[in-house]
Design a protein that fits this description.
Layout (H helix, E strand, L loop, with lengths): L8 H94 L5 H21 L2 E4 L11 E7 L8 E7 L1 E4 L2 E4 L1 E6 L1
Helix pairs in contact: 1-2
Subunit structure: Homodimer.
GO molecular function: adenyl-nucleotide exchange factor activity; protein homodimerization activity; protein-folding chaperone binding; unfolded protein binding
GO cellular component, one term: cytoplasm
Length: about 190
């Protein structure tokens, strides 16, 4: 007869401990695998998000570059149009000066009258362009618009008053194009 080993309670406890240790290892292995899968999924999501952000950044950079180029073209076009408008106004004056010089025989009176007409036309062209003259005798001296090239002692004129204008100044709006060259009384 074969003797059967009797299982003692200690032996069954060891078997149970081995089973729980194996189950714990399996659980630990499962948890580790789940954690790896979870981390892998998060990594893939982060990579997808990064790729999406990079594409958006590239699109934004391209849009900005296009905007910058378009703005530069528009700026150049506006400048060219403004220059063309200014030249167009001055061309009429140049044409009249050429006509005056083409006259072979004319009196001094006719010549003076023609020059006065050309000057009036030039003033009208400057007015149309928004250019205003500055620097009149009797004005208070203002270093923001006048360039004092000489001083004179004149008690009748008062202090810091323009007594003579050597060259008129011009401005568009508040921007000075050319300062008026003047003589100032002290």
């Amino acid at each position: 007869m074969v003797q059967e080993e009797e299982k003692t309670p200690e032996a069954s406890e060891q078997g149970a401990e081995q089973k729980t240790a194996q189950e714990a290892k399996k659980d630990k292995s499962k948890k580790k695998k789940n954690r790896e899968e979870e981390l892998q999924q998060k990594l893939e999501e982060a990579e997808a998000f990064g790729k999406k952000q990079k594409e958006q950044l590239l699109r934004t950079a391209a849009e900005y570059d296009n905007f910058r180029k378009r703005t530069e073209r528009e700026k150049s076009a506006v400048y060219a149009d403004a220059t063309a408008d200014a030249v167009k106004e001055i061309l009429n004056v140049a044409d009249n000066l050429e006509r005056a010089l083409a006259q072979q025989e004319c009196s001094v009176e006719d010549l003076r009258k023609g020059v006065e007409m050309v000057q009036a036309q030039m003033c009208a062209a400057l007015d149309k362009l928004g250019v205003t003259a500055m620097g009149e005798v009797g004005e208070a001296f203002d270093p923001a618009v006048h360039n004092a090239v000489s001083h004179v002692e004149d008690e009748a004129a008062g202090d810091n008053v323009v007594t003579q204008v050597f060259q008129k100044g011009y401005k568009i709006g508040d921007k000075v194009i050319r300062y008026a060259m003047v003589q100032v009384a002290n």
